[in-house]
Amino acid sequence: MRGVIMHTAGDVRVEDRADPTIIEPTDAVIRLTATCICGSDLWPYRGIEPADHQVMGHEYVGVVEEIGSEVTNVAPGDFVVGSFVISDNTCEICQAGFQSKCVHAEFVAQTIGTQAEKARIPYADGTLVKTPGEPSPEQIPALLAASDVLGTGWYAAVGAEAGPGKTVAVVGDGAVGLMAVLAARQLGAERIIAMSRHPQRQELARYYGATDIVEERGDAGVQRIKDLTNGLGAHSVIEAVGTQESFMQAVGATRGGGHLGYVGVNYDVQIPGIELFFAGIHTLGGPAPVRRFLPDLIDLIWNGAIDPGKVFDLTLPLEEAAEGYRAMDERRATKVLLTLE
Ligand SMILES: [Zn+2]
């Protein structure tokens, strides 16, 4: 099969990879219908994470081709959506709704690499969710978004306790930030403030439900949020960037007793303990347990209630993945969908 290999930082190639096969009785092999490039794929691309002939990709939708002898929830021919973390969905951690911390958790990005024609999915019963039927071509991008960016934005909005009567501030206008705006809207937030300086992303944020746009950053951004909330700060703040400035902006924008949901991967962020202490806020973050939300998200997409697929603004064939990485690295694209066939 064909698949993306990152030889080293900045060097992405599409090459022949061995076809995956069933290894464990709990595995499934799927043929991908579409895959995509994530903002987090840019970390190795930019040399922030090491890359040495690394398989790439962790978002996926496709059709089950083969199952192991113990798989019962999905069958060959089923169209499925999976999370970017493998989970058994039965252990205590999964049952509590934190499938990304499953005792059998495995990051799809590191070992499986779904920027490819096929993938072996361990713990298929716990990881994959089948759709009610064969999706239309228009539904594919939306279902693919559910695999990570929508599920992650949703988790951040839930962590921030976005809901009726709440003012929600979203720090970050990348794909996850935009999906968090969508989630906050669906969860019934009264006011949604998107922090963005990018005109096209501001427009998309408004499409997904943002009521206000704030262009200021850092302390000025915090002040602007306070000005918009009677000096109190937002009830709910979502951090979807992961830099020092964005994280402290998110902490500062959260009102006392409010909730911060943080999903930007914050490699180099140093949080001064005393600032977090005196902020007096609830925080919940980490790799999103997308699997918890997948059944509901698939329903919302199936019923046409949400349209997360608009977050993809560039579509390329898998063979042109290198151009997709360049476009995202240069911020010419928010999120790149890769088609197969
Ligand atoms: Zn588990």
TrEMBL record:
Location of the Enoyl reductase (ER) domain:
7-338
- Any one Pfam family here would be ADH_zinc_N
Secretion signal: which residues? none
InterPro entries this protein is in? ADH-like_C, ADH-like_N, ADH_Zn_CS, ER, GroES-like_sf, NAD(P)-bd_dom_sf
What cofactor does this one take?
Answer: Zn(2+)
Which keywords, in A-to-Z order, does the entry hold?
Metal-binding, Oxidoreductase, Zinc
Q: Which residues form a coiled coil?
A: none
Q: Please tell me whether the keyword Nucleotide-binding is annotated for this protein.
A: no
The record's section on Gene3D superfamilies has: Medium-chain alcohol dehydrogenases, catalytic domain, NAD(P)-binding Rossmann-like Domain
What's this protein's family per the entry?
Belongs to the zinc-containing alcohol dehydrogenase family.
Protein name, as recorded: Zinc-dependent alcohol dehydrogenase family protein
